[in-house]
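Deliverable D5.2: sample structural annotation.
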Amino acid sequence: MKPKILIDDNIPYIGGRLEPFARVEYVDQFDFNPDNVRDADALIIRTRTRCDSSLLSDSSVRMIATATIGMDQIDIPWCERAGIKVANCPGCNAPAVAQYVWSSLLRKGFNPASDTIGIAGCGNVGSIVAHWGKLLGARVLICDPPRQEAGMPGEYVSLDTLLGESDAVTLHTPLTKTGRHPSFHLISDHEIERMKHGAILINAARGAVLDTEAALPALRAGKITAVIDTWEGEPAINRELLSLSDIATFHIAGYSRQGKERATRMVLEEIDRFFGFETDKSGLAPAYVFPERINVDAILQSYDPACDTDALRADPEAFDILRRNYNYREETPES
């Protein structure tokens, strides 16, 4: 019998590709439940489907693939103990997040010729943000203790140094609460106090990397300005943070057409490896290649976050609806 695969029905470009090999059912992200996953062999999900013992303990699920970079919605230790393979899509939307970050910074008056950008977390996303910054002529500071301790090449600074010297600080860490370098509330009271007056703070990582309650007083006082794409407690976002942020969007920094195509291709590759399929991946974007050139005009012309900010301010309750109905943008072309 063909394996049964449940797929989040808002994953684009995947329809029809697995049907020749599996029994496929499409499910709303909030409707995965113990009953409909019980006889499933695999799940293909996004950020909102919590995968843990309460969902999976009585199921036959052997594989979970998330069409996202982040995996904090999955109880990975439990899945490992249960023998469930977990896969994600590292770097799939990283160029789109870099586009979002730099379009926001340039619109907020960041001058690459004279200003310093501090990047907390230099993985798939942070490395592209850093590469673009260097191409634009900015001074780039990087803090990434796990990479530094692993001996990965690069020049690193402490978080305190980064915060104290940067005109803009952008967050690109996964969300972790354990280990040597947990990122939960990485930016809290002490860190915000260290920041330059008038510095720009961008959170396009995970909401809880930033301590919302710590950020609010600094925003009220005008010490910092904020660009927020990911929120603690989303989709129930903090309305004061929404009103105080200069740019405020609904977790769509990575929502490019190419990023979504890459995620679907990467999910299919993982499913193929696990089940031995050979799915059709035609028309899906290839892996990103670092550009040799990028310029300010190309970035600004490729995306303006103002419309997305206006949409969220007009109807914060529609956070997930806005995400679901988003018109995927084109990534910044090499220039």
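Annotation notes: The CA atoms of residues 111 and 138 lie 8 Å apart. The two ends are 51 Å apart (CA to CA).
The annotation will be released with the project's public dataset once the embargo ends.
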